[in-house]
Amino acid sequence: MTEIRRGTAETLPPMLELPETILGRPVPTDWLWWLVNVGYVLDSPLLWAEKHDILLLNVFGGIMPDREGEHLYGVLNFYFCGQELDKDAEPAPERLLDWKKDALRIWGDFRLYAGIDLKTARMHWWEFRAIFDSLPPDSQIMTAMRYRGIDLGTIPDAKERARYARMKRSVALDRVDYEAEYDAAMDRPANKSQVEISDFLGRQK
Fold first, then answer.
1. Alpha helices by DSSP H, the chain
2. Backbone angles phi, psi at 183, to 5 degrees
3. What pLDDT was estimated at residue 17?
4. Which residues contact 171 (CB under 8 A, 6 or more apart)?
5. Three-state DSSP class for 151?
6. For residues 111-129, b (16+ Cβ closer than 10 Å) or e, as one string?
7. Are the CB atoms for 59 and 26 separated by under 8 Å?
8. Separation of alpha carbons 103 and 171, rounded Å
């Protein structure tokens, strides 16, 4: 019978070796620190140039003009746990997640599905994201994100559209007139050529 040995901090497999530096510089790794100092900044309505500077100040304590872009990429790469973003992906109809507004949903889901109380838990940011991304489809936060991501313009049936509009409204992060959104989506194909002509004429002014 093969003996199974428990791994130690010195013998962790590479997939479990969590980063503690960005470009060789030690950085905070606690999940709550990254949520507040990076996640909240990215969720904010600030201009991207403002977010850019705040992120570098928060993570590194200053802005490095000679390697600014490289350091910013390092911050975002750490935040997204080393995953490359799909630049060609279609944007969602609306925001899917807000760390502040969704805090109770996330806290409840971690308690229920992972047995973790986020009020007292301390873990690496990547560990937090791994658990978050593994929450089941029927968890509060995944259900809310799924409803937010529904494009009402793809639902022609009036009753179904009204039902999903109510669902979206119940979990919306921002105030949205979903009926107007649907009507606009339905009108778009019929008026496509008219819109294209008016856009063209507008550009000539």
1. 31-34, 40-43, 48-60, 68-79, 103-109, 125-133, 140-148, 158-171, 178-190, 192-204
2. -60, -40
3. 85
4. 143, 144, 147, 148
5. coil
6. eeeeebebeeeebbbbbbb
7. no
8. 13
> What DSSP state is assigned to residue 175?
-
3-state SS class at 78: helix
How buried is 18 (Cβ within 10 angstroms: 0-12 exposed, 13-18 middle, 19+ buried)? middle
In Å, how far are 152, 153, 188, 190, 198 from 182, measured between CA atoms? Answer: 6, 5, 10, 14, 22
User: Residue 96 has which token pair?
Assistant: 């899917």
pLDDT of residue 185: 53
Place of tokens 């339905």: 186
Q: What is the pLDDT of residue 6?
A: 44
Tokens representing 40? 């909240």
> What is the mean pLDDT for each group of 10 consecutive residues in the chain (205 residues)?
45 76 95 97 93 95 87 95 75 83 97 97 97 97 95 89 90 74 53 39 40
- Predicted pLDDT of residue 183: 58
Q: Give the residues across from 22 on adjacent strands.
A: 25
Q: Which amino acid is at 129?
A: R
Give me the count of residues in the chain: 205
Q: Which pLDDT belongs to residue 3? A: 44
172 token code pair = 């919306």
List beta partners, residue 30: 124
Residue 186's pLDDT is what? Answer: 55
Question: 42: which 2 tokens?
Answer: 């990215």
